[in-house]
Specification:
Layout (H helix, E strand, L loop, with lengths): L4 H21 L5 H14 L9 E2 L8 E5 L7 E3 L5 E6 L3 E6 L7 E4 L5 E3 L10 E7 L4 E9 L2 H20 L4 H14 L3 H10 L5 H15 L13
Parallel strand pairs: 3-9
Antiparallel strand pairs: 1-2, 2-4, 4-7, 5-6, 5-8, 8-9
């Protein structure tokens, strides 16, 4: 069996087994709310992590690691039209451009933080974008990603709304809903969206808070990271 398939199947099985219990006893057993986050972290931080951050080589004067969206060989597809950006290192500004363009469609100063949500106009289904990080006036690195096509995205949006409505009717709290959505995205290999759910919880449980703090260090220390030069084409 494929080594990656096993933890993914474990993730799916765990999600199916714990979500009903979460819905029924969310107030009595808070540990259950974060159990699937632990399973997700085991997949993320395993020997062959599904996320492949982009960082520079030994000659890079600035140590910056771009975690999400990441840089797998075939490119990262994201469901969200307002994705979360996660990185490690000293970054002054991040920006988003259409692939091949020299014009920012959105930018934000980010000194002192290592994650932020895209807050510009909704990104377009099927379109490819570059996420750029700046240490000085010129961009230091970039990662290209694509918003999934409209038909597939609309189908997933409908499924997520149904899932959220069902869980809210059972009295499930916001973190448990984010957990369920993260499992949903993990089953579909949409890892940028998995991380977005992890970072979407305003008041995370201690376990989720620890995992979020570990994400940049754990993923950027993996040997699977790849290098990048300037974003000029």
């Amino acid at each position: 069996m494929n080594k990656f398939l096993l933890p993914t199947l474990l993730l799916s099985a765990t999600a199916l087994s714990i979500l009903p219990n979460q819905a029924q006893s969310v107030k009595k057993t808070p540990i259950q709310q974060t159990f699937s986050w632990t399973i997700i972290s085991q997949v993320l931080f395993g020997k062959k992590p599904p996320i492949q951050p982009r960082k520079g080589g030994s000659r890079d004067p600035v140590s910056i690691c771009m975690v999400s969206p990441d840089a797998p060989i075939q490119g990262r597809i994201v469901w969200s039209d307002r994705p979360v950006f996660i990185w490690k290192g000293s970054v002054q500004k991040i920006a988003v451009r259409l692939v091949g363009s020299e014009e920012d469609i959105w930018s934000q100063s980010v000194g002192g933080i290592q994650s932020t949500n895209y807050t510009g106009e909704a990104l377009q289904p099927g379109q490819r974008y570059d996420w750029l990080v700046f240490y000085g006036k010129s961009p230091n690195k970039f990662v290209s990603f694509q918003v999934m096509d409209a038909q597939q995205r609309d189908r997933i949006t409908t499924q997520l709304r149904t899932l959220e409505k069902r869980l809210k009717a059972k009295g499930v709290n916001s973190e448990a809903i984010a957990t369920a959505k993260a499992n949903f995205f993990a089953d579909r290999q949409l890892w940028s969206d998995v991380l977005q759910q992890a970072y979407s919880v305003e008041k995370p449980s201690p376990e989720l808070d620890r995992i979020r703090k570990d994400i940049p260090d754990q993923l950027c220390n993996q040997e699977q990271t790849v290098g990048s030069n300037s974003p000029s084409r």
